[in-house]
Design brief:
With about 400 residues, the protein is α+β, with helices and mostly antiparallel strands. It is built from 15 helices and twelve strands. It folds into two domains: about 5-55 and about 260-405, no CATH class; about 65-225, no CATH class. The protein has a six-stranded mixed β-barrel with strand order 2-3-8-5-7-6. Strands 11-12 form a two-stranded antiparallel ribbon.
Length: about 400
């Protein structure tokens, strides 16, 4: 007796539904496992993508240029000349979508009620559009209008701490380029909101020319930040920037924010661990289902072998049953995950845990991000290892001796 592949598939399908309850249970477990893998990966990637995009918008950019020593000690002493023609040619050429030169130094802001340590950032408002969060973050008052704007933008949380408000004046103090105290009064012209809260409490913004004048640093700047069309394209841009800015410290966002890179790597490891845990649970159910089916059909397999079916064909039949189970489970699980992620496109609101999310640096509203690699990895893991786990029940089925198998009741 020689069983064609089509016949084996038909036998496998019919055998699965001899016990519809058991088959339905393992299909539910497989679909649930695939759904959890893909959905969790989507939420995790989305959470990471939000954190990365927010960090890049929060003054980081895709790359930064500083004077040597600035990153270790970000004071006015470590300043640099504004970009020359050679560097401007790169910054305004292909591969850069936006760039801005800033003054960025530690300072103290004081109101009539209180004072706080902050970072003073002098900006060109037009250059910040499309580059940083501040261009769209003002919620009360107005934004800065030019590098010569003498107004000050402060965060809502900082305004509350200082017990000040829109239209009132505060005093900023910092070290000037001549190592003397530099101070100036500023009217608050705008209140901005940002995530995380540390951005609201730790930064104040004024016109770049005003900051330069206050700090007596001439045309010098503290940093240049820029954006590439995509994060992945910045590595190709770095050699051109370094060639155009010899002697300056040129860094990509991965070097400026190493903690984000580490978080991304750790999240990838966590996903792999979750995949393994879920698959281990599913594999026990799959092996148990197939073994039960094999034990119940001992006489049947003995009869098949007595009629001439070869052991490899019995193995093929059991593997076909596993393949059908895994295939249906993958389809159902992926459909459920796709529907879940589509429903979550509007965002998963976890505002009830907003404080905890803020402490961890995450937004309380999560938006999933589907990565084809994660989906492929989850499906391949279930498919390949599922078939591998099915080899043992198939091997047990093929080991039956026909005479002994037929004698069993």
């Amino acid at each position: 007796m020689s069983a064609a592949p089509g016949l084996l598939a038909v036998l496998a399908w019919r055998n699965l539904w001899r016990r519809p309850g058991r088959t339905g249970a393992i299909l539910f477990a497989l679909a649930l496992g695939v759904w959890s893998m893909v959905s969790l990966a989507g939420l995790t990637r989305g959470m990471l993508e939000q954190q990365l995009e927010r960090a890049i918008a929060n003054l980081t950019g895709h790359a930064q240029i500083h004077a040597p020593g600035y990153r270790d000690d970000p004071v006015v002493e470590h300043r640099m000349a504004p970009p020359d023609a050679r560097l401007r040619a790169v910054l305004e050429g292909p591969g850069v979508t936006a760039w801005a030169a800033r003054v960025r130094v530690p300072a103290v802001v004081a109101s009539e009620r209180d004072s706080a340590a902050v970072t003073l950032v002098g900006i060109d408002p037009a250059s910040e559009r499309g580059l940083s969060f501040i261009a769209d973050a003002v919620r009360a008052g107005r934004n800065l209008e030019s590098p010569a704007d003498i107004g000050l933008l402060i965060g809502r949380e900082l305004a509350e701490r200082l017990e000040t408000r829109l239209g009132w004046r505060v005093v900023l103090m910092s070290e000037g380029a001549d190592n003397e105290l530099a101070e100036r009064g500023f009217p608050i012209v705008g209140i901005f909101e940002a995530e995380p809260e540390a951005m609201e409490t730790g930064y104040v913004f004024t016109g770049r020319a005003v900051a330069q004048q206050m700090l007596r640093m001439g045309e010098a700047v503290s940093e240049i930040a820029l954006l590439a069309p995509e994060r992945g394209q910045v590595d190709a841009l770095l050699p051109r920037l370094r060639a155009a800015a010899p002697g300056l410290d040129v860094r990509s966002w991965t070097e400026v924010e190493p903690l984000l890179v580490l978080t991304e790597e750790v999240s990838g490891v966590i996903l792999v661990i979750w995949y393994v845990v879920v698959f281990t649970a599913m594999s026990f159910g799959l092996i148990n289902t197939l073994l039960m089916a094999v034990f119940e059909r001992t006489r049947e397999f003995g009869l098949f072998q007595a009629l001439g079916m070869r052991p490899r064909q019995i193995v093929g039949q059991v593997l076909a049953e596993a393949l059908i189970l895994i295939g249906i489970g993958l389809v159902l699980g992926n459909i459920a995950a796709a529907l879940t992620l589509e429903w979550l496109e509007r965002g998963l609101d976890l505002s009830a845990f907003a404080e905890g999310f803020e402490l961890a640096g995450y937004s309380p509203v999560l938006y999933p991000s589907v990565d084809a690699g994660d989906v492929l990895a989850a499906n391949l893991l279930v498919f390949v290892l599922g078939l591998a786990a099915s080899l043992y029940p198939a091997w047990r089925a093929a080991r039956h001796v026909p005479v002994r198998a037929l004698a069993q009741t």
